Amino acid sequence: MKNLPKILVADPISPKGVEALEADGLFEVIVKTGLKEEELKPLLNDCVGLIVRSQTKVTATLLKAAPLLKVVGRAGVGVDNVDVDAATQQGVVVMNAPDGNTISTAEHTFSLLLSVARNIPHAHASMKAGEWDRKKYEGVELYHKTIGILGMGRIGTEVARRALAFGMKVLVYDPYLSATKASALQVELVEKLDELLPRADFITVHMPLTEETRHMIGAEQLALLKPGVRIVNCARGGLIDEEVLAKGIVEGRIAGAALDVFEEEPLPPTTSLRSLPRLVLTPHLGASTAEAQELVGIEIAQSVRATLLHGEIRNAVNMPNLDAKTLAAVGPWISLAGCLGHFLAQIAPRRAEKLELRYSGRIAEQETTAISRAFIAGYLKHFHGAEINSVNVFSFIKNLGLEVLETRQSEAGEFSDLLEVSVQDGERKAVVGGTFFGTQPRIITINGRFIEGRPEGIVLLLENKDCPGIVGHVGSLFGESKINIANMSLSRNEIGGVALVWMNLDSIPEESVMQRLLADENVLSAKIIRIV
User: Fold this and answer.
1) Could you confirm whether 236 is annotated as catalytic?
2) Would strands 428-437 and 440-446 be described as parallel, antiparallel, or unpaired?
3) Residues 13, 138 share a domain
4) CATH at 358
5) Quick one: which of 275, 266, 227 has its CA closest to 248?
6) What is the β-pairing status of strands 449-453 and 440-446?
7) Are residues 329 and 306 in the same domain?
8) pLDDT in tens, 3-21
9) Which residues of the chain have pLDDT under 50?
10) pLDDT value at position 2?
């Protein structure tokens, strides 16, 4: 049995997710959960894929132990347990599964919202203790109250719909939500967080955890909160400063709160949060429903498979999405762009200052980010080797100080579609253009000269004086050396000027053959180029 590419599942996911990974028998799936970093390292040495949830920390050290790794899949929404920068540097795609637990988390948010409004957990504990105290656990209604939702992604949107169904007024703070979308959702969009805080009777947060959002409700915001507000966090620990929250509850400014996520997980047994009155705690249950676990497991498994098998990118956090439809449209151009980059690297000035891509025709109307990444990766691979790929190209570009420009022209020129790429170092510049003849890729311009070259294998690029006998001379020389010419294209700038010859060869000429070729006074230059 031949060795199959390996995928390691390091945290528990749905059995149906594992089944999806094993479909068709194309991968060897290793399920080993609950392991420490040192135990994971040897397992990852020959894995191309890694799937985790929130338990396993995918650190830079762990990534270095996985030289073949191509994709990390997080079965859930956040990726804060993955060192995304380190993964990007290593050329590893990091993706999550944002859809599978949307309803589950929205419903849990509303469960906690009702719990803090009606004191349900505390009343339940009191009843279990043999008490009957109706007055102590008097609550408030949601009807006609104002809820402030911080973040209107998938989950925030579902919470808003449920709040409207309860007759609540919905305020929303989200820097990326358009006014048109807010109007369609029947919510009021506020420009600044400080405008929302004094107006909301209930607040729920649904933001990703970033440097900008960490402690977005902190000491300064506490002073702005409406007295008697109730707060829920089912998103990420750290969005709310837990010390500030505790202070607000003790001082009575915050009437109640519910947390499903924490700055430190698992929540330490000795934390003061456990003893706070009017605080409801659940152990990160937002996605803990049978339906959600099955959905996120299947979703991340399918996404990882699609990347490894077809190059399709779904829900990646360090790459633009490339779904099946987009991939079908731009996939051939991605391959051609990589060839153009590799070709250009072999004819361009060595110390490049600027890379430029010019799209014209129908291709200019497509999403071209993946194409541009493929070109840059093809160009850089010639100098930096296999560590370069489409994921980490911009990290390398930044370190190298290279300028990258991209321009578009929707009007077609001499070709209905054209991608021209160039490398410039001061006054020196090399330009190559590519397109498709039907479904066949072609290099059709080199430094302004028209040619028809097949971008594959071994290429001889020859410049010579436009005079009779050159092609015959090359043919005879290669014939003697048992070198077969697969395809050939010729171009000249003017009669008697300089001719450009493109030859696809079946093998690489020995150095002595090239020296004999260059010894001809009519041959101006001859270069062997390998296109991978």
Assistant:
1) yes
2) antiparallel
3) no
4) 3.30.1330.90
5) 227
6) antiparallel
7) no
8) 899 999 999 999 999 999 9
9) 1
10) 65
| pLDDT value, residue 415 | 82
Query: Which of these is catalytic: 108, 236, 314, 373?
Result: 236
| Residue 305 counted as domain residue | yes
pLDDT at 230: 98
388 and 330 inside one domain = yes
Cis peptide leading into 266, omega within 30 of 0?
yes
Amino acid at 247: K
72 with 109, same domain: the answer is no
Please tell me whether residues 253 and 332 are part of one structural domain.
no
Question: Is residue 130 situated within a structural domain?
Answer: yes
Amino acid at 424: Q
Any domain includes 498: no
Q: Look at residue 178 and tell me if it is in a domain.
A: yes
Quote the CA–CA distance of 498 and 480 in Å, as a whole number.
26
End-of-domain residue from the set 416, 437, 470: 416
Residue with tokens 């390292």: 41
The active-site residue out of 284, 305, 373, 442 is 284
Quote the tokens at residue 78: 């956040």
CA dihedral 414, 415, 421, 424 (to 10 degrees): 0
> What CATH number is associated with residue 26?
3.40.50.720
What are residue 221's phi and psi, to 5 degrees?
Answer: -75, -30
Residue 461 and residue 463: Cα distance in Å, rounded? 7
Given 131, 265, 291, 414, the catalytic residue: 265
Sheet with 71-74, strands from edge to edge, namely: 28-31, 6-9, 47-52, 71-74, 93-96
Measuring CA to CA, which residue among 3, 2, 23 is closest to residue 304? 23
CB-based burial, 116-138: b 16+ in 10 Å, e otherwise: bbbbbbbbeebeeeeeeeeeebe
Cα torsion through 501, 491, 438, 336, rounded to 10:
50
Q: What's the confidence (pLDDT) of residue 494?
A: 83
Residue 257: domain span:
102-281
The yes-or-no answer on residue 265 being catalytic is: yes
pLDDT tens by residue, 81-104: 999 989 988 989 999 987 888 999
Query: What pLDDT is stored for residue 466 in this prediction?
Result: 87
Q: What is the reported pLDDT for 387?
A: 65
Element (H, E) at 441: strand 440-446
- CA 83 to CA 94: how far, in whole Å? 9
Among residues 416, 435, 451, the one where a domain terminates is 416
**Number of domains, the chain:** 3
**Is-catalytic flag, 124?**
no
Residues 155 and 218 in one domain: yes
Per-residue model confidence (pLDDT) at position 451: 92
Instruction: Please indicate, yes or no, whether residues 121 and 196 belong to a single structural domain of this protein.
Output: yes
Considering the domain architecture, whether residues 112 and 233 belong to the same structural domain is answered as yes
Confidence at residue 165, expressed as pLDDT on a 0 to 100 scale: 98
